[in-house]
Amino acid sequence: KGPKPNYLSENGYLCFQSFEAANKGCNPLTIRAVFDAMSTGDNVSPDVAQENLDAFSSDASLNAFKIALLKTKLAGFSSIAFLLFLLGPIVGSTCLDALAAGWFPDWPGTD
Q1: CA–CA distance, 68 with 57 (Å, rounded to integer)
Q2: Cα separations in angstroms, 76 against 36, 37, 84, 92
Q3: Contact 15/9 with Cβ under 8 angstroms?
Q4: How far is CA 103 from CA 42, 66, 68, 77, in A?
Q5: Is 13:48 a contact under the CB 8 Å cutoff?
Q6: pLDDT digits (tens, 9 = 90+) for 31-69
Q7: Quick one: pLDDT band at residue 72, thresholds 50, 70, 90?
Q8: Residue 19 and residue 14: Cα distance in Å, rounded?
Q9: Is residue 107 a contact partner of residue 100, using CB atoms and an 8 Å limit?
Q10: CA distances for 50 relative to 21, 28, 93, angstroms
Q11: Which of 11, 20, 43, 57 has a 20 to 30 A CA-CA distance from 5?
Q12: What's the chain's Rg over C-alpha atoms?
């Protein structure tokens, strides 16, 4: 039930739009935080989602939720940082060389 905006959601995966539609009337920030604790993307496998929801609801101290949210956010941020680390030298050398050649063509340090 709910919206099925992509191929995975049509095949049974839980997407954020469906999760949001199933929890109408709840705090939108809470809905996003719970979904982000289950997945780093916009889709999550139904068995993983159910396991996580059961773990979140059975833990009164919310430690399971805090740890899961921290892990997924850390995975997302570290993947972006790693991508920027890999692209940094390529972009840096290309842009800096073009900048030096274009704006400072007679500068002796650009040879």
Answers
A1: 13
A2: 10, 11, 13, 23
A3: yes
A4: 43, 50, 49, 35
A5: no
A6: 999 999 999 888 999 999 999 999 999 999 999 999 999
A7: very high
A8: 7
A9: yes
A10: 17, 20, 47
A11: 57
A12: 22
| pLDDT 10s digits, 3-19 | 888 898 889 899 999 99
Q: Are 43 and 9 in contact (CB under 8 A)?
A: yes
User: In this structure, what are the phi and psi dihedrals at residue 76, rounded to the nearest 5 degrees?
Assistant: -65, -45
pLDDT of residue 110: 62
How far apart are the C-alpha atoms of 42 and 7, rounded to whole Å? 12
Residue partners of 65: CB distance under 8 A and separation at least 6? 34, 37, 56, 59
Three-state SS string over 20-71 comes to: HHHCCCCCHHHHHHHHHHHCCCCEECHHHHHHHHHHHHHCCCCHHHHHHHHH
